[in-house]
Write a structure and sequence with these properties.
The protein has 843 residues and is an alpha/beta fold. The protein is 22% helix and 25% strand. The chain has a domain of 106 residues: Immunoglobulins (Immunoglobulin-like, Sandwich). A hairpin with a 2-residue loop joins strand 18 and strand 19.
């Protein structure tokens, strides 16, 4: 362990302030004379990408299931194993901090980054986050819990003010961070882009110093999100420890100048450096520089862990008995849908990685069903906002593409660097040579594609900068002389709309493709070449026809990384495109229709009563295809339970009236009645309740035994529940305990999740699960009434006013009311057949 105090004392002012801002996009500043190494960090929740923004031109990374999928496992131990896996992968890339987990809540089904977050429930989110953090940090990598706090939407995310009352903030939105820190021991916290009640978090010492460090005992470092707002004086005095990326804007030289000028006491810089170095030292990152290693492919055990995590996340929403499939009786299976032959395994934005393996549900099902079963496929409809990227699907490139980089904007001279890329989507934030000056370089990309099907293809070119596209030597799109307008959907919306050209291609015939690019007027250097299938016949009709002649129809619907992405919220609860129509048309032709929903967040499911079974598989990581096949064929049990409510209509969502806000402000008007709390408070049943999920076996929950019939603050209460697998196959059950106050002093949700346990049993096996309740299981946050004494005195002194009998006022803080509390135990917030009660006794 390093002597942190001695290091701080030995640093000059310039060295100290330089440590508080990044050196570049992914690393901190080194102080070589004192042996303080540069520390590298990496995104993110889906996988450790390494020191780059791009997920295209990098070595592969292990891609685990998305946050909502981990939420659906209800398994903190599994989250810990996944965290350890990403910690190992980060360390292999020379990185000592992982920018994960994301623990913001699913306040609205439309929030664009829900897929990255665990749940609508703070307790479930926090328990999973704590497990994930423990796993990451067990590998000597700092886990960075984000985004602190109330970053529950993407609309105007860098400027919107989240107006959250104190009760909702304390009882809901802060809880996952608190559990990740107190139970998980997180050493990193990332502040959010948004403002909280009018001020950016980097300017709020009450949050960063008083709450995080004082009340919660946080001993790690606080960093900004990338390019987030931070003002020198306010941020230095509020408790910010690291501004990213570098070079510094608020910190670094600007902070040194503020100290010299007397605007900031040097003691603030000393404390920030001390906190940051202590966090790195806690994972032994100060012992020596961490080398950049060569990423190793996942082991057999790691591949199985990722696949098992996906299996444990899959939620069986409905089943009329068609699942699991009786494979020996099948002769022909129709696999239909826009996501059946495309691997939608992650959402969009900074969490994206390049996986080691990409398999589609169609491929996995063909393997699982075997040669005796004929598998037929139809897309059914298109859902992509943008064109498919050239180099994938029907226009693959066996050898990839070679990108040559030139100094200057004219593609002249010898290239100073080359890169190989798999597809024609290049986001060039990390340049391959120091000879290249930002926004003063050009690039030529060459490769060869082979169409899988003959016909007319509509090629597209989108650019941030200038680009042109050649096919077999012919110029087909010229974005230099005729730039397409701004307003594209890719690259965080900073790329142009598509320019298009129709080209006839013959199946199996190689075609040369050339792209020329220059960073002329580039906001974020990027070019994207894509294509649309050009078929004139009706895809829905074709799908319905193949379904009619199949023993079973499996329809894989969902979203993609364009529809669910960092940087933008969804505008509709419905599945994109004609997917609802597709499901209904297929179901009308085949009563044995199974729908697999491949989406990272809740979507509208209006046809659930019309089909034989519905599975929710999320964005399941690189093991998703095999997991889907395993669950459908019965090789695996669907182990997931919903981590959020799925409403009947978007208008039923408790946040509907207050999302995504207006005029730079989003009011959390539902208060503590978010998610299932709001559905029950307003007696609006969801389509599927929070915690819901079926299996292929049956369980019986016995009469619970309590360690005591009374609870006193400061103690604990254990509720022991017998669980028996009464079915004929191995399976899992999630036993959930909700607490409901009989006579609450302040308005409270009807009931709240306060304990859960996941158990796996073979047929006929029994066990007992212990659900442990503590003070916070019964507590609520009372904001108090600071002006109460003045109000009471004025009313009592009024001549013609008879004061109402005042309700009791208490001090601000966590409160536990005496009285009876009901404990509801079962399988979801809507299925709680077992009830018992406990009396809370307070001094």
């Amino acid at each position: 362990m390093a002597d942190i105090d001695a290091l701080v004392a030995a640093l000059t002012l310039d060295e100290k302030t330089s440590l508080l801002a990044g050196a570049d996009s992914w690393s901190t500043v080194a102080v070589d004379r004192l042996g303080i190494p540069s520390i590298r960090v990496t995104d993110g929740p889906n996988g450790a990408r390494g020191v780059t923004f791009s997920s295209d031109d990098v070595p592969p990374s292990i891609c685990i299931p998305c946050g909502s999928a981990i939420g659906a496992t209800w398994d903190p131990g599994l989250a810990e194993a996944l965290g350890a896996l990403l910690g190992r992968d980060a360390l292999d890339r020379g990185c000592r901090a992982l920018l994960a987990p994301t623990v913001n809540l699913h306040r609205s089904p439309l929030a664009g980054r829900n897929f990255e977050c665990y749940s609508e429930d703070p307790f479930l989110s926090g328990m999973l986050a704590a497990g994930f953090v423990r796993g990451v940090q067990s590998r000597g990598v700092v886990a960075t819990v984000k985004h602190f706090v109330a970053n529950d939407q993407e609309s105007e995310r860098s400027m919107v003010s989240a107006v959250v009352d104190e009760r909702a903030l304390r009882e809901l939105y802060l809880v996952p961070f608190e559990l990740a820190i107190r139970d998980g021991g997180a050493l990193g916290v990332m502040t959010s882009y948004n403002r909280l009640n009018g001020r950016w978090l980097t300017q709020q010492p009450a949050m960063l110093l008083d709450l995080l460090r004082g009340e919660w005992g946080f001993r790690g470092l606080v960093m900004t999100d990338w390019y987030a707002v931070a003002e020198t004086v306010d941020a230095a005095t509020a408790g910010l420890d690291l501004e990213m990326p570098g070079p510094g804007r608020a910190f670094g030289k600007a902070l040194a100048d503020a100290v010299v000028g007397g605007d900031v006491d040097e003691a603030h810089a000393n404390e920030a450096v001390r906190r940051q170095l202590a966090a790195w030292d806690a994972v032994a990152a100060l012992d020596a520089p961490t080398p950049m290693g060569t990423p190793e492919p996942p082991t057999v055990d790691e591949v199985e862990l990722v696949r098992r995590a996906s299996v444990e996340s899959i939620v069986l929403l409905t089943n009329d008995g068609v699942l699991p499939l009786d494979v020996p009786t099948l002769r022909r299976v129709a696999v239909i849908g826009p996501n059946a032959d495309q691997p939608r395994i992650m959402g969009g934005g900074s969490s994206q990685v390049k996986p080691w393996e990409l398999r589609t549900p169609l491929e996995a099902l063909r393997d699982a069903l075997g040669p005796a079963v004929e598998v037929v496929h139809e897309r059914g409809c298109e859902i992509d906002k943008s064109s498919h990227v050239v180099g994938t699907l029907e226009l693959p490139s066996a050898d990839g593409f070679v990108a040559e980089y030139f100094t200057g904007l004219d593609l002249e001279g010898e290239p100073v660097a080359t890169r190989r890329v798999d597809r024609l989507r290049i986001l060039a934030l990390d340049l391959p040579s120091t000879d290249l000056v930002p926004n003063q370089w050009s690039m030529r990309v060459r490769g060869r594609i082979v169409a899988g099907e003959s016909g007319l293809y509509r090629l597209t070119l989108a650019q941030s900068g200038r680009a042109r596209l050649f096919v077999d030597g012919a110029l087909v799109v010229d974005g230099f002389t005729d730039p397409p307008p701004a307003g594209g959907t890719d690259v965080f919306g900073l790329i142009s709309q598509d320019a298009v050209a129709d080209v006839n291609l013959e199946a199996g015939v190689p075609v040369d493709v050339l792209v020329e690019y220059a960073t002329i007027e580039a906001t974020l250097p990027a070019v994207r070449v894509g294509f649309h299938f050009a078929r004139s016949d009706d895809l829905v009709e074709r799908a319905a026809a193949v379904a009619a002649d199949a023993d079973v129809a499996i329809v894989v619907v969902g979203t993609s990384d364009e529809w669910e992405s960092e940087g933008r919220d969804r505008t509709s609860f419905a599945l994109p495109g004609r997917q609802d129509e597709l499901v209904r048309r297929v179901a009308a032709q085949n009563p044995r229709t199974i729908v697999v929903v491949n989406a990272g967040a809740a979507v509208d499911l209006p046809w659930t009563d019309d089909v034989a079974a519905v599975l929710q598989c999320w964005f399941g990581g690189e093991g998703m295809a095999a997991a889907i096949a395993g669950v459908l064929t019965g090789a695996d049990e669907p182990g997931g339970r919903l981590p959020m409510s799925i409403p009947m209509r978007i208008e039923h969502s408790p946040s509907y009236d207050n999302f995504p806000g207006e005029n730079g402000e989003v009011r959390y008007g539902e208060g503590v009645y978010m998610g299932y709390r709001g559905h029950e408070h307003r007696c609006i049943p969801p389509r599927f309740a929070f915690g819901h999920g079926l299996g292929y076996t049956t369980f019986e929950l016995g009469t619970p035994a309590m360690s005591a019939t009374t609870f006193r603050p400061g103690g604990s209460l254990t509720v022991s529940v017998p669980v028996t697998n009464t079915g004929d196959r191995r399976g899992s059950e999630v036993v959930q305990c909700y607490v409901s106050p009989e006579e609450p002093r302040l308005a409270r949700p009807p009931k709240e999740l306060k304990a859960f346990a996941k158990v796996t049993l073979g047929p006929g096996e029994s066990t007992v699960v212990d659900l442990v309740l503590h003070d916070r299981s019964f507590a609520y946050w009372d904001p108090g009434q600071p002006d109460w004494e003045d109000v009471k005195a004025n009313v009592e002194n009024a001549t013609f006013v008879t004061p109402d009998r005042p309700a009791e006022r208490r001090q601000r803080g966590w409160q536990i009311d005496p009285g009876r509390y009901h404990l509801h135990i079962g399988r979801s917030s809507g299925d709680l057949p077992i009830a018992t009660a406990v009396d809370v006794v307070t001094p």
